[in-house]
Amino acid sequence: MKQWLVFPRQKVGLVWVGAISRPQVLLHCFLLFIFLLSPIAAGAVDITQQLQRPLNSSVGRQSRDEADGLLRIGEQQYASGYADKTIASCLRALELYHSIGDLKAQGMTYNLLAKAYVELGSFKEAEDALRRGLAIARDTKDFQSQIFVLNNIGTFLLQQGESAAAGKTVEDALAIAHNVKNVEGEGLSLSNLGLVSARLGDYNKAIKLYENALIFRRQTGDAIGEANTLNNLGDAYLASGNYQDTIATYGAAMQTAKTNRDRTNELRAIDGLVTVHTAVGRYERAFDLLEQRLALAKELQNLREELKSFESYAQLYKQQGNYVTARNFYERAIILARTLEDSKQEVQLLDQITKMLQRK
After folding, report:
1. Using CA atoms, how far apart are residues 329 and 306, in angstroms rounded to an integer?
2. Which of 35, 55, 146, 202 could potentially form a cystine with 137 if both were Cys, beta carbons 3.0 to 4.6 Å apart?
3. DSSP 3-state assignment of 36?
4. Could you give the 3-state DSSP secondary structure of residue 6?
5. Which of 225, 282, 268, 270 is nearest to 36 (CA)?
6. What is the pTM assigned to this prediction?
7. Whether the predicted pLDDT of 52 surpasses 80
8. Are 143 and 182 in contact (CB under 8 A)?
9. Angle between the N-to-C axes of helices 303-319 and 343-359, in degrees from 0 to 180, rounded to the nearest 10
10. Which pLDDT value is given to residue 56?
């Protein structure tokens, strides 16, 4: 990521209206927030390759192996939607990495830990994890990690409504990237500055920043970053009411992500397309896209994404006045929320059913 952006937070549902308000822009930022939690360096590098370094003592090797195993398990737990279990694995891994003095591995673990905290809505803990990771990057003079973590902190501040502080933080990241000639970092930082402009309602400036970011991302062959920025650009077009360019841009993001098996951006592009097609009354196309979304979630065996798909179906049926079918999908989403032991999400879904029935 993969990369960060979007701190998934509160659980984000699709917006089914044509006009896009500031809160809706925040929701889009929030989705991106989660995505940008991964390192900007070639995300394709296997975690084992990143972690393996020789140790002299057998005790140290044993601790390293256990910590590496815990971090891999944590990644799997997060991908499967179990953020609470991810946190437990990361905290234990951190203890072990601290005992052997492996700062780089600690930084990677703080990154995953921040993602998990955000998923659970524990924003204070997430920010603490991010800032600890930044301190490590500065201590080790790891400029690439500094660029990455500063971007994550910036998008976190943006999600918290601190746009000015977010912009300054990302500008610091852009300056470092420019000084060390890190093209990938420049692309990421420009993309995130676009988010700041979008959050402030300056969509024309955001669009220009995204277009500039795409130049850098394509220079490095960063397909995941390109898809992410295309999704950002789609968000800006959608917010400005330019539905024609919205559809084209989300479509390009979906195709790029699909070609590179970038499921996170593929899902996000589908969500954007569902929103825009719904806004212009193309309900049949919206349902086709939701069918693709649900199939992809099941292929990934990601219960969290299945839940989101059911909730999106429910919202679309509700908008059409088909409350019986909408309720059925809400109830299917509730079953998954219980499976995930996400009581907060369960309560929110039950509340949506109650409000829907009151409107009948």
Report:
1. 11
2. 146
3. strand
4. strand
5. 225
6. 0.72
7. no
8. yes
9. 10
10. 52
The first and second tokens of residue 320, run together, are 């059409």
Element (H or E) spanning 279, and its range?
helix 263-279
> How many residues can be counted in the chain?
360
Can you say whether the dihedral through the CA atoms of 161, 165, 167, 169 is positive or negative?
Answer: negative
Angle between helix axes 143-159 and 103-119 (nearest 10 degrees) is: 20
The span from the CA of 90 to the CA of 112, in Å, is 7
> Alpha-carbon distance 76 to 340, whole Å?
15
Residue 106, token pair as written in the block: 């600690």
Half-sphere exposure at residue 76, Cβ-oriented, CA atoms within 13 angstroms: 6
Number of helical (H) and strand (E) elements in the chain, helices listed first: 17, 0
- Alpha carbon of residue 236 to chain centroid: 17
Predicted local confidence at residue 62, as pLDDT: 83
Would you say 153 and 134 are in contact if contact means Cβ atoms under 8 Å apart? Answer: yes
The pLDDT assigned to 28 comes to: 45
Q: What is the DSSP code (8-state) at residue 321?
A: T
Angle at 17 between CA 15 and CA 21, to 5 degrees: 75
Instruction: Identify the top-confidence range among 105-119, 134-148, 207-221.
Output: 207-221
Burial of 350 (0-12, 13-18, 19+ CB in 10 A): middle
